[in-house]
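User: What would this chain look like folded?
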Amino acid sequence: IVQAFPERSASFQTQRFTVMIGIGNMPDAGYALGRKLVAEYPTDIATLRSLARTTLNSPFVQKRDLDFAMQTALAADALGNNIDARAAEVVALAYFSNGDREHALENQERAIRLQTDAVLLKQYHTSLEKYKTAEPGPIPYQPPHKPPTGPPVVPSTVPVIPAVAE
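Assistant: Here's the prediction, encoded as structure tokens.
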């Protein structure tokens, strides 16, 4: 896919990273890919934000590399000259995930000052309240939902229609 659509390479590789550190349960290889992507796309602020956010926010990540996420979030913020609202918001999440409420609040408030989109602004305010009240730390792992195995269960309330002989 990357070869067929090279202009979307960063996006596809970031999706691969997301699967690898999440439901693929390949954290070592996933973070190696993440570091490669940071080196390959050092000026792509969206990719850097996405790598950091996925590491910090995906509920399917069993092993969170908080150092990788913090470095990547700070790199994105620096690329945005500290005036990119989405980068500031990811930095706030990185600080909160690392247990630093004070810096999380400081950066979330900066993100709120910088954000102009009403929908994102509402989400940022929700996060700010969380950072004020919740215990700082990484988001806990939540195993992916697996569908039940075995034959399908037919509810007893479904009427059975007898076959009609012709």
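The mean pLDDT is 90. If you want, I can go into more detail on any region.
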